[in-house]
Amino acid sequence: MGTGYVGLVTALAFCHHGHRVTCVDIIPERVDSVSRGKAPFYEPDVAEALARHLGSGLLDATTDTAKAVASTEITFLCVGTPSSADGSYDLGHLGAAARSMGEAIAGLDRHHLVVTKSTVTPTANRSVVLPAITNASGKEAPAGFSLASNPEFLREGSALADALAPDRIVLGIMEGDQAARDLLEGLYAPFDRPLLVTSLEGAELIKLASNSLLAIKVAFANEVANLASSVDADGYQVLEGVGLDHRLGPHFLRAGAGFGGSCFPRGLRALVAFSRSQGAPALLPTAALDQNEVQPAVMVDLVRKALDGNLQGKRVALLGLAFKPDTDDVRETRALPIYKLLLEEGATVVCHDPRAGSNFVELVREEGLAHPDVREGLDEVLREANAAVIQTEWEEYRLLGPAELVSEMAPPRAIVDARRTFDPYMMRAAGVTYWGVGLPPP
Ligand SMILES: NC(=O)c1ccc[n+]([C@@H]2O[C@H](COP(=O)([O-])OP(=O)(O)OC[C@H]3O[C@@H](n4cnc5c(N)ncnc54)[C@H](O)[C@@H]3O)[C@@H](O)[C@H]2O)c1
């Protein structure tokens, strides 16, 4: 249930192992699109896998929950859990999905296993999903149905590859529900990955803690890189030196314009809200969120410095609107605060993204701002720009040589790289006025 990034990709991963999967969504256009072989979002390899599994008859899609439940043994709940005003996850979609599961289970004469993949804080499964299914079905778990938690760790941009080969599979099983455990262990056996079985709440907290620690690492890397640039050290080299310690590892020690996407900021906010509900102070997630709000301004500060201290009337190309490469997702993208800050300081901003242009237009519209100038052609965006900010490190940008990048730009032709897309020393040696996060000024 839920045919978004997680739902559709999970479906394709199970089809890959020969299972029959029915995708359910409440949006008829989404179901239609999937049925016709058109993925509702961009994600590498998904279009091909969707065509393959529709063709082989392993996959279908419907808006009819009862029909889907009647012909299957397990339902994965993959609906969205957006942020509420207080930072906690809004469980409205999950509660509604659980209720319609309960109604479908009420009419079944055999056991059904419901598995929550959506990200939630403890104790959402026990306090929201379980009662919703129980009340709507008139049955009790585990005798009448089973409930388990199986949080998802896939990353957008490599979602299908991650779903097929996750670092670990976490199963939160209710006390004494050996049948649910056996069914899920059997389902995941062909994946041949480390499998951890815990309580419902243990699984919920593993997901929340993993996301939050990754985000905290990024926030820390940003602070170190910001410090490095102020003392003539290369922040990326400093972080490489830190990450070579096997106790720390290199992953997520990458500085930039901050983290976005549907998981990190929302996960940290949910951890803060959950910690406070437990009387805990939530110091680390709060600090990481605060740090993340600083980074877009750090980038705009670099642009201002590159343009002699004043953005008024300057033309700035904003390259990369998605929150990361290889996705069209702009949820919480750092491109938005950078865009707003540039406008506030009087710059004219022309935007480009290989995939996320129309989603960014929609995002800016939702913010109540004027229609952004988003162009399809990279050359159009760079032409006459005084500075170009690289917000997302798309391969398309990486492949540009120094001349291609700056030859059509207007003086001072500054590149401000938020993601270390290029080798700064090569760029500077080629005569490019190159600024970057964690880099001393040129
Ligand atoms: N996107 C990621 O990278 C990622 C990674 C890991 C975990 N998650 C978690 O997985 C969950 C889903 O995320 P997503 O990015 O796939 O969301 P999404 O917004 O892309 O998709 C959610 C889908 O659920 C559908 N839906 C809502 N209510 C429904 C209902 N009652 N019945 C059937 N369908 C319903 C929506 O129409 C939508 O198509 C969230 O909790 C998220 O935190 C996301």
Task: Give your account of this protein's structure.
With 442 residues, the protein is α/β, with parallel strands linked by helices. It folds into two domains: 5-198, NAD(P)-binding Rossmann-like Domain (Rossmann fold, 3-Layer(aba) Sandwich), CATH 3.40.50.720; 211-222 and 235-436, NAD(P)-binding Rossmann-like Domain (Rossmann fold, 3-Layer(aba) Sandwich), CATH 3.40.50.720. The termini are far apart. Strands 10-9-8-11-12-13 form a six-stranded parallel sheet. The chain has a five-stranded mixed sheet with strand order 3-4-5-6-7, with helices on both faces. The longest helix is centred in the middle third of the chain and has 31 residues, at 200-230. It has helices at residues 5-16, 28-35, 46-55, 65-70, 92-106, 124-137, 159-164, 178-188, 200-230, 235-243, 264-277, 283-306, 335-344, 357-366, 378-382, 395-398, 402-406, 424-429, and strands at 21-24, 59-62, 74-77, 113-116, 146-149, 169-173, 195-198, 315-319, 348-352, 373-374, 387-390, 414-417, 433-436. 49% of the residues are buried. The protein is elongated and about 75 Å long. It has 18 helices and 13 strands. Nicotinamide-adenine-dinucleotide is lined by residues 1-7, 24-27, 30, 78-81, 93, 96-97, 100, 117-119, 152, 154, 156, 262-263. Residues 1-7, 24-27, 30, 78-81, 93, 96-97, 100, 117-119, 152, 154, 156, 262-263 line the site of nicotinamide-adenine-dinucleotide (NAD).
